[in-house]
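Please, structure for the following, as tokens.
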Amino acid sequence: MTDTPRCAVIDRSTRETRISGRLELDGAGEIRIDTGIGFLDHMLTTLAFHAGWDLELECHGDLEVDDHHTAEDCALALGEALDGALGDRAGITRFGSAHAPLDEALARTVIDLSGRPWPEIHLGLNRESLGGLASENITHIFVSFAMAARCALHVDVLRGRNDHHRTEAAFKATALALRQATAVGGSVVRSTKGSLGGNP
């Protein structure tokens, strides 16, 4: 853990959503999330808890239209907050990988906080929606998060029959990989290019 708090304010407003809150990477499990979509709240809470973050996130979105803008913008706001909290990324472990099971489901996430965004998300969901959140938007959450956080993010659900279990396992694996990748282990920039988070 670093002596300087690694945190960022979340403040994103468009014609479609208004999002506010705060992210602290080295947290104590203080989490308060209200997006207006119960299943999204559940997944973001899962992500923050297993990543070891403190996270406050409140979203007022155009849910009378559908869930897309809320899901996308919350992921973008969270990714931007992670990017901001990491600063110049000096001293972070950079790479992280984890498996997470949930009953019959098993997910794997591999991440590189390189500053170069690349999402590869393969969840294999079959249901049209989960708790008011369209399944296609679950994939889009991971994609949007990776782009805004500027990281290579590979998420694969390896097995599972229940789509709730498959999704939750994916968020847990991602949280554990993020916890590993964001850990501080000195002041060295772990890149042969000499920089992370800038123009690689």
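The mean pLDDT is 93. Helices lie at 38-51, 68-86, 135-149, 163-182.
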